[in-house]
Structure to design on (187 residues):
């Protein structure tokens, strides 16, 4: 039996990633199926496996891409507050990546591309902590900052801040929030 759908595609890897991100954004990662993504891309059901092997491989590629985009977003921020703003901005702009990146059970934790991208993003986050006045607990400071930005971004994406934020720019709300909690000198 032959398939009416060809394997060859201009950029099948990108087409499958884009379709997967659309599914995740609207239905969540549990709704992903390589067969469905192949149908959406107009290729044989086996074609995506040539690029991703399986569903976990696809989710790992999404997470690796997400961490790369995330590190790029953080890199231009001059200080910890603005890295937090970049964190929130990234989550709002890339909600599907964001969902997958922070669910380690979805990915292959030993994937070299994922590990390299995570290491780069972690280094960018730590560089933000280093912009604070010297602290006796840089690791705990980093965890506190990460918790604040990640919590705000997660609540924003889930719609739990709609009433609190109202029509205001979420990035400005986040800046105001950090201003309430931290003084300019990091204290």
């Amino acid at each position: 039996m032959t398939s009416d759908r060809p394997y060859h595609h201009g950029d099948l890897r990108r087409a499958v990633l884009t379709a997967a991100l659309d599914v995740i954004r609207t239905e969540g990662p549990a709704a992903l199926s390589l067969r469905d993504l192949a149908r959406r891309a107009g290729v044989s059901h086996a074609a995506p496996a040539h690029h991703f092997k399986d569903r976990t491989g696809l989710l790992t590629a999404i997470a690796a891409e997400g961490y790369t985009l995330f590190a790029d977003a953080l890199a231009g921020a001059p200080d910890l507050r603005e890295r937090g703003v970049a964190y929130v901005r990234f989550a709002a702009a890339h909600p599907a990546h964001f969902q997958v990146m922070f669910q380690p059970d979805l990915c292959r934790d030993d994937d070299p591309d994922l590990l390299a991208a995570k290491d780069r993003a972690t280094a960018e986050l730590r560089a933000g902590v280093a912009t604070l006045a010297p602290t006796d607990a840089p690791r705990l400071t980093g965890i506190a900052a990460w918790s604040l930005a990640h919590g705000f971004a997660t609540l924003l994406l889930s719609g739990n801040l709609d009433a609190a934020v109202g029509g205001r720019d979420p990035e400005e709300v986040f800046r105001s929030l950090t201003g309430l909690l931290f003084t300019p000198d990091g204290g």
About this structure: Residues 61 and 180 are 38 Å apart (CA to CA).
